[in-house]
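Lay summary. Proteins are chains of building blocks that fold into shapes, and those shapes determine what they do. In this project we predict the shape from the chain. Here is one chain we studied, written as its sequence of building blocks.
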Amino acid sequence: MSTLSLTPSRIEVMNFIGKDIESDITNYLNPIEENWQASELLPLTSDATFVEDLKSIQEMAQNHSYDLMAVLVADTITEEALPTYETWLAGLTGVDQYNNNVWMKWLRSWTAEENRHGDALNRYLYLCGRIDMRAFEASTQYLISEGFDNGAGSDPYRNFIYTSFQEMATNISHRRVATFAKQDGNNLLSKLCGLVAADEARHAKAYKSFVKRILEIDANELMLAFEDMMRKKIVMPAQCIKELGGTTNLYSNFSMAAQRLGVYTSMDYVDLIKNLLSDWDIENVRNLQENGEKARDFLMNLPIRLARIAERAKPSDEVFRFSWIRA
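And here is the predicted shape, written in a compact code that computers can read:
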């Protein structure tokens, strides 16, 4: 039984569960010595077979649809904006970057694993021959320089709910790109995206476990935070993606491509909410105040309401032409 008061502060809760998660972190991270690296997956210029391998990569890339390439580029830009995510998480209540507390140790280790994703995907795009790399790099720079607001502020409760959702969403996107790549005969890209997806799945488990611990200690406040994030809706990190020259509102075009392919759809959003409700056993959480009970009612009814909306949503058939893709 927790020794914390009924309404502990965020800092109290973060300190309290931080003592427990220090030993659990290794369950969600791989040893660096055993982690895959981009250099193992993609050819190096020093390889005797580099020219042959490069030709094979470029031939395989021609098999992919325009929409799949657009989703792959946008996914890569999202991964490359990692500095934004580390900066925002380092500012959460309870994360002490100056004294390197357990939360900061987690964040640095998480960032180190995530950093490989952009490296590998970027390198693939460079080699595949279908991408205007300067346009792609400019979009990455725009996204990092402008940042984004996920609506969670410095609250660890809201942010861990956000990261739980976001890591699961990126897992779905990368996993399905891997599936489509394999269907197109591109085993290399399929393997690369599959490895990235596996990392995202592990990281999602970590953030979901953090939320579960908070629920055991501060259920009412967590429930209110969950309701608040769902009312605001989970915005993707690429929400503010733009092209060279400052063109805005590209996210809707990228989203349409993902929905046409079935890489990430409105119904996936609903399914992820169901997943969180189930994993955190929201229906059976006890010791809630009246506002917490109302928040839970809202959350439990949300998937049904959103599913009705998702069923009516139809992606546009018009293919937007991004400056990132040559052909």
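What the prediction tells us: Residues 73 and 136 are 7 Å apart (CA to CA).
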